[in-house]
User: Fold these one by one.
Assistant:
Number 1:
Amino acid sequence: MTDPIETTQLYIGGKWVDPHSTEVLEVFSPATGEKVGSVPSADATDVDNAVRAARESFDAGVWRNTPPAERAAVIRRAVELINERGAEIGALVSAEMGATPGDVATLQQLAGTGCLAAYADAAESYQWEETRTGMFGETLVVREAVGVVGAIIAWNVPLFLFCNKFGPALAAGCSVVLKPAPETPLNANMLAEIFSEAGVPEGVISIVPGGVETGKALVDHPDVDKITFTGSTLAGQSIAARCGEQLKRVSLELGGKSAAIVLEDADAAASAPMLVFSGILNSGQACVAQTRVLVPRSRHDEIVDAMVAVASTFTPGLPTDPETKLGPIINEKQHAKVTGYIAKGKEEGATAVLEVDAPTVGTGNFVGPTIFTGVTNDMTIAREEIFGPVISVIAYDDVDEAIKIANDSDYGLAGSVWTSDVAKGVEVAKQVRTGTMGINWYAIDPSSPFGGYKKSGIGRENGKEGLESYLEHKAILMPMGYTSA
């Protein structure tokens, strides 16, 4: 462990400034308990200063009037800088939230820079203006940046989430004030400096670390035009209500309880590694985790045996240990929540066919891979988002029943179908009420829309759809009889 990063200033408008707040956020490793660093906890005055800088820069047009191709070039330069400093950034993220450096590199850095590159491509290819001919002749349709964006992100994949908020906002020409989770603020400061170095003008970007009150100040600020939030459904509901009172644009990427539907013709041995990984990636601390595995009753034992064999190799431990495949749970509170769900599953009659012992090293906030069988879809572990490495296997008799079970959820964020017949897999996927599906694996494609149905959120990220959520659409009606050609 290197010396803690003690930051005494806030990154406001692309500059380090003294905070108004006297409160400090201290960051400790969820794996070892060692101090990773500290930052000021921004108060309402600090948030106001950040929003004012964003408002002034937006109104002055220093970024929104920059041609899209030039904005794209700056984003691509940021990608280069992130990759150049990948080891340093990865080590910091790993220290803050506990994932192994390898998982940070693949699930966060590769995914995050992929999103940034896709948004740069979208900015260049997007049709910012078009002429339409309608009832009264020609109308010029113009797409413009929505304005000042307040972005609030979670702690589970902070590098990826940072990129997936900055990417579309900056590609659209917006100014951004981002509030990182109090558990993982240090990497946000580092990344913001990288974007400034890449060429984002002064005033356009700010970081306001803090907890709930900091977030409320950002959501409620009258000069914030749009809120984008990634986190829990409960917090998202509160944010949506506050934005609704103000008629403020809002997009929400929330929780999930995704179903992996294994069809009768699936290859159990070939499917098991990715099937298990999709359920317990990032120690299960992923909104897209495929935590309900639906299997045909006729092949139940075979598929479970294959999953158990794979999951048994996912060793929990310190992220610095080369043998570790699962890092710690983020904190004691979340650890207690996850272990409470495991106990609840047993109380309600499910059978834990796998419980990998958790190590006693470091903080002790470790949970080994856990697989339950005998689960019915009305059980707590099948309905609520656990956010830990816990998989519930649910048996079904026919495909229609599997689809019904998959759709019997308050959530609709992700899912997958496992089959040797891709066309059949697509047919099933189309019947599941969820925002993203994979066939024989799961991933978030940076060029395709990502978001949820039902309580999994509002709006879409990634691709053209993600860019459009940061735009306003203006129609300029030409005089009757006017022709632009």
Number 2:
Amino acid sequence: MSGTTDTIFALSSGSLPAGVAVLRISGPAAFPALMRLTGGRQPPPRKAALRRILDREEQLIDEALVLTFPAPHSFTGEDVVELQLHGSRAVVNAVYSQLAALPGFRLAEAGEFSRRAFENGRLDLVEAEGLAELIATETEMQRRLAVEQSFGRQSHLYEDWARRLTHARAMIEAELDFADEDDVPGSVGERVTADIAAVRTELEKHLESAKGGEIIRDGFKVAIVGPPNSGKSSLLNYLAQRDVAIVTDLAGTTRDVLHVDLDLEGYLVRVFDTAGIRESSDVIEQEGIRRARQLIDTADLVLYLEEIGSEPLQAPLSPHALRVGTKLDIHRRAPSYDIYLSTVTGEGVGSLRKAIVSRIQSAWDGSVAPMRGRQVALLQDTSLHLRSALDETELELRAEHLRGAATALGRITGQVDVEQLLNVIFSQFCIGK
């Protein structure tokens, strides 16, 4: 990214045209630019004021609500101005033109406002990543998990672990350096072992929630599989409430994997319809069946559909499978099915939805969870250092492993050695953030 001595500007609201366009300006010349745009009238900090926005010839561009946020009490930690303009492309482009003509001004790069917030101590990396997740959320549970990151709860957890490990290391080094002093308690190495073990237990439990965090962020994958004409495509269409898949009485109609995204009680559920599993000489259908079997291995839940009363499956099911008897409107219930349903009457579909949600809730209990691979990898690194510290009998080496653990935790929040990560992380943001 370019130097932070520039003053940057960008649209921070949605795409144009719109009812309102929020234009953000951040940097050392933000307030002088506002005075030029408004004829020298600057409102009090954090209080909205109606101002006329003028061009260099003092011709009216628009009337806008103006807000000012003096440093360091702003999102970026710099002087910030927000203009709430009418959301016309012509209006926004006219203001852009005025700002771009000022010395030291330029359009912001992707994620640059958030990067400046990080560099000025307004956000750490976990909070910045959580903010990106929050902007991208589509379901209620995605929002809840992103809020835990973007507003500091997850960072506080890591900071607490780092503080406790630093204290344990300090106590060990105190014993090493001042073993002959009366005011240094003896056997510190033994006394801090319980503290180190407690942190590792908490961290391991946190790591166990990573799969749940992945499910909430990326969606719970449900594969609908079964023999031809067992009602797979009909179930997909019923759940989606639209015609996603072609439904006919001909076996082999579905030849590829189709999917829809559903919001079930705030959870993102990705439902996949697959080709009917059977022996086939058709090359295209064989490929569809291969993909269906591949999906069974990666799905979080497999719904194995059979028409009630049909020949039962002989092959072993996935351990994540529910056996679903279909076409309940024309058959009586029969043993060996977990759920019975009819996509004609809708009977049993509610039970299926509840079963899916129950599986998700068993994977994520609502606690703070790491959402990104970077965080998981550094947490695993921390855990390995702690295990080595607990196994080590030499106090010097134990202290060194604790230093490594605290360093790994610091890299998660951005307190230690993360310069090479910054461009990658902040480039994922939109321009106005």
